[in-house]
């Protein structure tokens, strides 16, 4: 599969009253056409900031990309001028946010907002663009699209609004979609429907999809690869089924254990104690050591590299940033 996006050694800092917050500290990931990468982590792990840097919508200042490359179809986006960047953002990649109500314009009908994409980017007539808007609403399965195209965002339910956001993101048929907690604000049944829709469209259009979430349960059925972030780094990266079978990082193990699973009844719950670190004062060595039940002396002094994890039967590339990934893997099985 062709690599669509490759993030290399990305670093992002924020100036805060407390000092410099190191939000992203050397992130590497790649997404191919037709692939879904789930980026998982607690709030403050750097997953959204990484995505904003990729999209070119980072708040600057206070944010600053201090190093790295963002290669999209082979071009480093960080070297493009803002107007070239905007073109990539329109047709190459699009983003879906958690809160549709604040991302949509409250005083424009959803049809006008969808149509505007085609008028601005494709030079279509208003009438043709309006017809495309109805088509898009149908495509994201909004019932009675033709009747509802003139309605305003507040007239739709949360789930329907999120479908409209998906329609907006898809309008120009981008090759990559980044969805930042797209279903977090919705209730559980609606969450599943929206996630299914997203996965279905992604398959049909053979797009790359980056799914940012704090909820491992949401991505199980749709992701191909999972990258787990902690304190601005990727601490584990692996095919989703391998991670589910046996995590190779204690942090991932904790995240997995916090999802209730029927087949694990009676087993000890392995919950993560404590809180993520203040990013102006990331602990030395392994940033997770103050919370890690497996920590040893070496964890306090030496930062673990994102090392290759190997075992019999593993064909894909799998990595873990833990000095004791072997022991963790064994303990997880
Ligand atoms: Fe825990 Fe040490 Fe592994 Fe970090 S390197 S996750 S502290 S065992
Ligand atoms: Mg976030």
At the third CATH level, what is the topology name of the largest domain? Rossmann fold
What's the total helix number?
Answer: 13
Q: Describe the largest sheet.
A: 8 strands, mixed
- Fraction of helical residues: 25-40%
- Spatial shape: globular
Global mean pLDDT: 92
| Helix/strand class | alpha/beta
In total, the number of domains comes to 2
The second-level CATH architecture of the largest domain is 3-Layer(aba) Sandwich
Q: Ligands bound here?
A: iron/sulfur cluster, magnesium ion
- CATH-defined superfamily of the largest domain: P-loop containing nucleotide triphosphate hydrolases
> Whole-number radius of gyration?
21 Å
Elements, N to C (H/E): EEEHEEHEHHHHHEHEHEEHHHEEH
Low-pLDDT parts are none
Oligomeric nature of the chains: single chain
Read across the widest sheet, the strand sequence of neighbours is: 6-7-8-3-9-10-12-11
> Gap between N and C termini, in Å?
31 Å
Pfam families: ABC_tran, oligo_HPY
Membrane topology: Peripheral membrane protein
Keywords: ATP-binding, Cell membrane, Membrane, Nucleotide-binding, Transport
InterPro entries: AAA+_ATPase, ABC_Ni/Peptide_Import, ABC_transporter-like_ATP-bd, ABC_transporter-like_CS, Oligopep_ABC_C, P-loop_NTPase
């Amino acid at each position: 599969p062709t690599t669509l996006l490759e993030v290399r050694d990305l670093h992002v800092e924020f100036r805060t009253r407390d000092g410099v917050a190191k939000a992203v500290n050397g992130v590497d990931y790649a997404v191919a056409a037709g692939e879904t990468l789930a980026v998982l982590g607690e709030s403050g792990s750097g997953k959204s900031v990484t995505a904003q840097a990729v999209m070119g919508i980072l708040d600057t200042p206070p944010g600053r990309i201090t190093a790295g490359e963002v290669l999209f179809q082979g071009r480093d986006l960080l070297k493009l001028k803002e107007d070239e960047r905007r073109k990539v953002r329109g047709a190459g990649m699009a983003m879906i946010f958690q809160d549709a109500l604040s991302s949509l314009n409250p005083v424009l009908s959803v049809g006008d907002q969808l149509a505007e994409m085609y008028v601005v980017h494709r030079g279509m007539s208003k009438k043709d663009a309006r017809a495309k808007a109805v088509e898009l609403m149908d495509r994201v399965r909004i019932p009675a699209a033709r009747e509802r195209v003139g309605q305003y965002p507040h007239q739709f339910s949360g789930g329907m609004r999120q479908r409209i956001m998906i329609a907006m993101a898809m309008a120009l048929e981008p090759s990559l979609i980044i969805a930042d907690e797209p279903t977090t604000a919705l209730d559980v049944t609606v969450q599943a429907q929206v996630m299914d829709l997203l996965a279905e469209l992604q398959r049909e259009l053979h797009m790359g999809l980056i799914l940012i979430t704090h909820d491992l349960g949401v991505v199980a059925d749709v992701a191909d690869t999972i990258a787990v972030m902690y304190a601005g780094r990727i601490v584990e990266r692996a095919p989703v089924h391998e991670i589910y079978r046996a995590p190779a990082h204690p942090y991932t193990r904790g995240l997995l254990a916090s999802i209730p699973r029927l087949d694990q009844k009676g087993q000890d719950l392995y919950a993560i104690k404590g809180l993520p670190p203040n990013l102006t004062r990331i602990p030395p060595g392994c940033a997770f050591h103050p919370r890690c039940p497996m920590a040893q002396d070496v964890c306090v002094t030496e930062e673990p590299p994102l090392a290759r994890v190997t075992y019999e039967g593993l064909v894909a590339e799998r990595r873990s940033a833990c000095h004791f990934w072997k022991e963790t893997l064994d303990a997880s099985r």
